[in-house]
Amino acid sequence: MQRQSPLGRRRGRPSLGRRESARLISPQQMISDFDMADRKMRAQMRAVHALKSKLGVKNIVDSNIARLKKRWAKNREKTRLLDNLLDIKPEYVSSIKKSAWARRLLKIRLVRDPKFVQIENLAAFTHNVFQIMRACEANGQQYSMAIVDIDKFKRINDSFGHGVGDVVISEMASMLSNFAKKYGGAAARVGGEEFRVFVAMSPKEFQAKLAGLQIAFSRSLEKPERRGTKPIKDWTGWTAPTFSAGISAKKGNKQALLNNVLSRLSTESDAALYEAKKTRNAVLVFK
Q: Taking the model in full, what pTM does it have?
């Protein structure tokens, strides 16, 4: 018997596009679905409230609308407005249900990284990034995203053990999380030794600040034995770890679809990271 995904079709649940498929959707797509459903619900709500204000009514249940139509049968303008209200009411109710379902999924998935709790997971990161993007749209402010990757991390795990590797990741997670909080941004561990950081600043400024963070990161782990962790054998061959990062930037645009913008930023940041990894311990901006 085929097992159905917990995000598959259920009785009484509104359709949300890709959420109808049996596979788990990505956090980015989930947040995008929520954003679109919420915006549509708010647009419908504004339209309904505008009609209610013009009509001077609060209760729009079917029985009350039917009663008002009889009372205003000879008033062509009010009858027209009531007909408009009846036309958009089903879509209004549907948009509220879709937004509520998307919000429920959002709450289920919005948790911190299960192992390194000082930093967000990708779902929470995407949610916060979309909020920052919306804020930047108001004044056309520039924002930047970086993909950060710890250099030669496999060597650290293989030579000194996963316990030491966890200390390195934990330090990176703490530093990036504190950095994001300081500048009103967002940071997340994507998986393994890869992280993402999003801030409302120019790519050049972001590049300079990450370069400073590189120095602090390496200095903090020059003597990992002070962290109380032990290697597989000994510390022979240990060198302070470094990280590389690729940055991409964009200016706030009210017409842009957030999911598409974030996908483009991810692709460009990854391309810049690829170049940075050639020399390692580098922070490059996509060109």
A: 0.64
Q: Which residue type, as a one-letter code, is found at position 215? A: I
Question: Over 80: is that where the pLDDT of 22 sits?
Answer: no
Give yes or no for a contact between 149 and 202, defined as CB atoms under 8 angstroms apart: no
pLDDT in tens, 154-166: 999 999 999 999 9
pLDDT tens digits, 84-120: 888 888 888 888 887 777 776 666 555 555 566 678 8
Contacts of 133 (CB under 8 A, 6+ apart): 143, 252, 258, 261, 262
CA distance 35 to 125: 14
Instruction: Compute CA distances 208 → 22, 32, 214, 227, 285, whole Å.
Output: 44, 31, 10, 28, 11
Contacts of 12 by beta carbon, 8 Å cutoff, 6+ apart: none
CA angle, residues 66, 71, 74, in degrees to nearest 5:
115
Q: What is the 3-state secondary structure (H, E, C) of the chain?
A: CCCCCCCCCCCCCCCCHHHHCCCCCCHHHHHHHHHHHHHHHHHHHHHHHHHHHHHCCCCCCHHHHHHHHHHCCCCHHHHHHHHHHHHHHHHHHHHHHHHHHHHHHHHHHCCECCCCCCCECHHHHHHHHHHHHHHHHHHCCEEEEEEEEECCHHHHHHHHCHHHHHHHHHHHHHHHHHHHHHCCCEEEEEECCEEEEEECCCHHHHHHHHHHHHHHHHHHCCCHHHHCCCCCCCCCCCCCCCEEEEEEEEECCCCCCHHHHHHHHHHHHHHHHHHHHHHCCCEEECC
Place of tokens 């990741």: 169
- Answer whether 244's CB lies under 8 Å from 149's CB: yes
